[in-house]
Q: What sequence folds into this?
């Protein structure tokens, strides 16, 4: 942000990340208890081809208004070494599964709830994943005009390959719908992702099998616009009309095929 550093100020760093990109085949079955209540279970067989998972802990000290000194401990696995530009390694292969659970329940004729747990049980087994375990220290850095730093660390550690089981975190979606009539509805939505809870309230207009939602994300002060159909599902959440300036941005697009 182009601000001068406070000399001798100490900054603590604790970062944990788990990410992967995978594709797969999904099979699901829906049990209907009656016309309006059902339970869904699905399993997806995954093939993964991109990985980053691990921890970075340490501290940084502003040695003067232009420079930092670092002392970091790194332990992470990856498909591409973004931290230390490792050259000699093989790309990992991952295979796994994910189980999803869904519940639709009509409390009354006007009130219904929906609960969906994505990746309720999910993991990927990686073979020959590149891993770096290292300590990085430096007091040599160059501050650029835009406020960023070029750092030349001193690194001690090991580079290796390892078999690794990656647990995928669950994502919980809860939808509470109260209907005034067949077209207009009041919504309360709660999403639990990792340790974060996102709550939204809004309205829905429904006609000809199309659902149009307008929601306010309470804590983040963002707005969601969504369109749902039997085939297409699209939503956009942002806290700014100018998406380039948005601090909170989420875009979802899906195509559903039933057979």
A:
């Amino acid at each position: 942000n182009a601000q001068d550093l406070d000399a001798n100020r100490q900054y603590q760093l604790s970062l944990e990340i788990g990410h992967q990109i995978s594709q797969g085949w999904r099979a699901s079955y829906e049990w209907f208890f009656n016309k309006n209540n059902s339970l869904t279970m699905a399993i997806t067989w995954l093939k993964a081809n991109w990985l980053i998972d691990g921890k970075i802990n340490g501290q940084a000290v502003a040695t003067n208004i232009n420079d930092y000194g670092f002392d970091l401990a790194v332990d992470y696995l990856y498909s591409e070494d973004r931290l230390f530009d490792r050259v000699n390694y093989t790309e990992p292969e991952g295979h796994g599964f994910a189980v999803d659970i869904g519940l639709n329940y009509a409390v009354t004729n006007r009130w219904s709830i929906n609960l969906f747990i994505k990746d309720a049980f999910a993991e990927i087994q990686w073979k020959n994943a590149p891993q770096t375990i290292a300590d990085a220290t430096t007091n040599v850095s160059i501050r650029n005009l835009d406020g960023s730093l070029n750092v030349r660390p001193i690194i001690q550690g090991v580079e290796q390959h390892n078999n690794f089981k990656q647990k995928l975190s669950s994502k919980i979606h809860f939808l509470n719908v109260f209907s005034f009539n067949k077209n207009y509805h009041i919504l309360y939505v709660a999403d639990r992702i990792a340790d974060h809870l996102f709550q939204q309230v809004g309205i829905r207009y429904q006609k000809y099998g199309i659902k149009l939602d307008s929601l306010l994300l309470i804590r983040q002060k963002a707005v969601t616009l969504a369109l749902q159909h039997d085939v297409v599902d699209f939503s956009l959440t942002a806290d700014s009309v100018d998406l380039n300036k948005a601090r909170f941005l989420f875009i979802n697009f899906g195509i559903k095929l039933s057979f």
User: Anything to note?
Assistant: DSSP finds no helices and 15 strands in the chain. The longest strand covers residues 111-138. Residues 71 and 129 are 25 Å apart (CA to CA). The mean pLDDT is 87.
